[in-house]
Amino acid sequence: MANELNPWKLIEKREVFDCNFFTARSDIVHHLHGNPRPYNSLRFKHFGAAVVPIDSDGSTVLIGQFRYVLNRFTWEVPRGGGTLEKDSLEVAKNELSEEAGLTAKSWMHIFDLWVSPGTTDERAPGFVAWNLHQGEPHPEPEEILLRKRVPFSQAIDMVLSGEICDMGSASLLLNIQTRLVRNDLPADLLDILR
């Protein structure tokens, strides 16, 4: 059984870079089984919420865009960020409307994941939304987005083939698929996805 006690002791907190989105730290720490050393990490001031919208025929909407950091185009579920004090469901609702032009009557919180807990404290909440109403997307000026409506099963295939390579999108889609197989979703959503 893993020891759940904290083996780390903070000796000195060192901020080496700070911007509106995160702080980079190079703290000096001591581990129970080691010597004092630097521990580098990113501490985020925002989180990124993701949502899988499910239409009445079992389809979902994917968002395609070119990601600067990856230097490539990606397909993802609607997602975007909010500052830490914001409610994650409200952020997800705003992103769904902004990127896909959708609003939803029904929402389910699927998870709160930590993106890379060895180096960052970035949190990534995920939702599924259904009973949708279509409106007009209104992306931010720097967002050049493509939208693709696909059957939910095709989105799962895109994850398994690596076409959807965003960790948040992939884990959210696969979580919903697993819940579908286990009958662990609200009855009306199960009916739509079957």
From TrEMBL:
Alphabetic keyword roster: Hydrolase
Any one Gene Ontology BP term: nucleoside phosphate metabolic process
Catalytic activity: GDP-alpha-D-mannose + H2O = alpha-D-mannose 1-phosphate + GMP + 2 H(+)
Annotated GO MF terms: hydrolase activity
Annotated PROSITE patterns: NUDIX (PS51462)
Superkingdom, natural source: Bacteria
Family to which the UniProt record says this protein belongs: Belongs to the Nudix hydrolase family. NudK subfamily.
The protein's name in its UniProt record: GDP-mannose pyrophosphatase
Native organism: Enhydrobacter aerosaccus
UniProt lineage: Bacteria, Pseudomonadati, Pseudomonadota, Alphaproteobacteria, Hyphomicrobiales
